[in-house]
C-alpha cells in the first residue's frame, strides 16, 4: 500500500488535474415551467449492478427526473435504467460513446453530456445536480432534497462536499444494498483535496465542468448548504465551508476491495493509466483509516419508512 504521504501527493496531483478538465462556455437556457425539485444527470458506464439502488434511493429523496448518459456500457445498464421510466419518475437514457478523430478517448465527453442536459432539459428544472453512480444525495432534516433547497433559493450554485466511504471490511461485493453495507465514513483531513459536486440552477449556468460551474448570478462563487458563500470554488476546502447540515453527499468511493481493484484497470476521466492505478489502489488503505460510523443515509431511510435493510432491499428490488 502507498504511504499517507504518497497518497497526499497523488491527491494533490489529482486536484491540479482539475484544471485539465474541459470547461464549456454556454448561453444559459431560458427558464420555462421549471419544476421545483431536483433533476439528476448521470454520465456512466457499466453500472447495471448499482443503477437500481441509485435511482430508487433518489426517488425516495424526491427526484423525479433522471438523465443518464451511457458511455458504451456492455452490461445492460441502459436496459436496467429504462425499467424505472414512468413508474415514479422519468428516466431518459442517451447513448453517449464517442472518440477523438485519431481514435483515442475524447477529452470532455462527460462535460459535453452535462452541456447537452443543461441546454435541452435545463429549462424544465429549478435545480440540476451532476453526480456519479457511486454518489448519493439526501436531506438531513427534510423529507426531500427539494424541500431542503427551498432555503437556498437565492443562490444558483450549491457545493456539496464528498463524504467518502471505503471498503468497510468487505473483500468482495456484499449482498446488502450500498447504504447499509458501507457505514464507516473516512473523517475528512484539512490537508486533503477533497472534491465537491454541485447542485445548480441550470438556467443560470454559463460555464460547465465536472466539479464546478460558473453561473450568471454568482460567477464562480459557490454557497454551501447553510448559505455560506466562498468567492471562488478553489477556496471551498476550508473546514468551515464543508457542511452537511441540511444536505449530505455520500461517495461510496471504493466499494469492496475486489471492486476497487477492478477500477484500477480502467482509465477514468482526467487520469493517465500510470496515475489511475496507484491512486485507486491507495484508496483501499487510506479510506479504511480514521473512520467514524455514519448512519445519516439510514436515518433518512427510516424517516421514509424503510429503516431495516430487508425492507429497503425489497423496495430497491421491486422493479428488478
TrEMBL record:
Write down the superkingdom of origin.
Answer: Bacteria
**One term of GO molecular function:** glycosyltransferase activity
Instruction: Answer whether the UniProt record assigns the keyword Transferase to this protein.
Output: yes
Could you tell me the membrane topology recorded for this protein? Single-pass membrane protein
- Family matches, as Pfam families: Glyco_transf_92
Q: Which UniProt keywords apply?
A: Glycosyltransferase, Membrane, Transferase, Transmembrane, Transmembrane helix
Example of a GO cellular component annotation carried by this entry? cytoplasm
Q: Where in the cell is it found?
A: Membrane
Q: Which InterPro entries does the protein's record reference?
A: Glyco_transf_92, Nucleotide-diphossugar_trans
> What PANTHER family does the record point to?
GLYCOSYLTRANSFERASE FAMILY 92 PROTEIN
Provide the protein name. Glycosyltransferase family 92 protein
Q: Which organism was this protein described from? A: Candidatus Amphirhobacter heronislandensis
Amino acid at each position: 500500500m502507498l504511504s499517507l504521504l504518497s497518497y497526499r501527493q497523488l491527491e494533490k496531483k489529482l486536484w491540479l488535474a482539475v484544471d485539465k478538465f474541459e470547461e464549456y462556455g454556454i448561453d444559459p437556457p431560458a427558464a420555462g415551467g421549471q419544476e421545483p425539485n431536483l433533476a439528476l444527470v448521470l454520465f456512466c458506464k457499466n453500472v447495471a449492478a448499482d443503477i437500481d439502488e441509485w435511482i430508487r434511493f433518489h426517488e425516495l429523496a424526491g427526484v423525479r427526473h433522471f438523465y443518464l448518459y451511457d458511455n458504451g456500457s456492455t452490461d445492460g445498464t441502459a436496459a436496467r435504467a429504462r425499467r424505472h421510466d414512468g413508474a415514479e419518475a422519468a428516466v431518459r437514457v442517451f447513448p453517449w460513446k464517442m472518440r477523438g478523430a485519431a481514435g483515442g478517448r475524447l477529452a470532455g465527453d462527460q462535460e459535453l453530456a452535462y452541456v447537452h442536459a443543461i441546454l435541452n432539459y435545463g429549462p424544465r428544472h429549478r435545480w440540476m445536480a451532476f453526480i456519479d453512480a457511486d454518489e448519493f444525495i439526501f436531506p438531513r432534516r427534510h423529507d426531500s432534497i427539494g424541500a431542503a433547497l427551498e432555503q437556498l433559493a437565492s443562490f444558483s450554485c450549491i457545493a456539496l462536499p464528498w463524504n467518502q466511504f471505503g471498503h468497510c471490511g468487505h473483500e468482495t461485493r456484499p449482498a446488502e444494498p450500498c447504504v447499509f453495507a458501507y457505514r464507516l465514513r473516512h473523517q475528512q483531513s484539512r490537508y486533503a483535496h477533497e472534491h465537491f459536486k454541485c447542485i445548480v440552477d441550470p438556467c443560470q449556468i454559463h460555464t460547465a465542468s465536472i466539479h464546478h460551474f460558473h453561473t450568471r448570478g454568482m460567477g464562480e462563487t459557490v454557497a454551501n448548504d447553510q448559505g455560506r458563500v466562498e468567492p471562488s470554488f478553489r477556496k471551498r476546502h476550508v473546514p468551515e465551508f464543508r457542511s452537511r447540515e441540511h444536505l449530505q453527499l455520500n461517495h461510496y468511493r471504493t466499494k469492496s476491495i475486489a471492486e476497487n481493484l477492478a477500477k484500477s484497470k480502467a482509465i477514468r476521466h482526467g487520469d493517465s493509466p500510470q496515475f489511475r492505478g496507484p491512486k485507486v489502489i491507495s484508496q483501499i488503505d487510506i479510506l479504511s483509516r480514521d473512520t467514524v460510523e455514519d448512519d445519516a443515509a439510514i436515518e433518512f431511510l427510516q424517516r421514509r419508512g424503510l429503516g431495516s435493510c430487508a425492507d429497503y432491499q425489497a423496495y430497491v428490488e421491486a422493479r428488478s
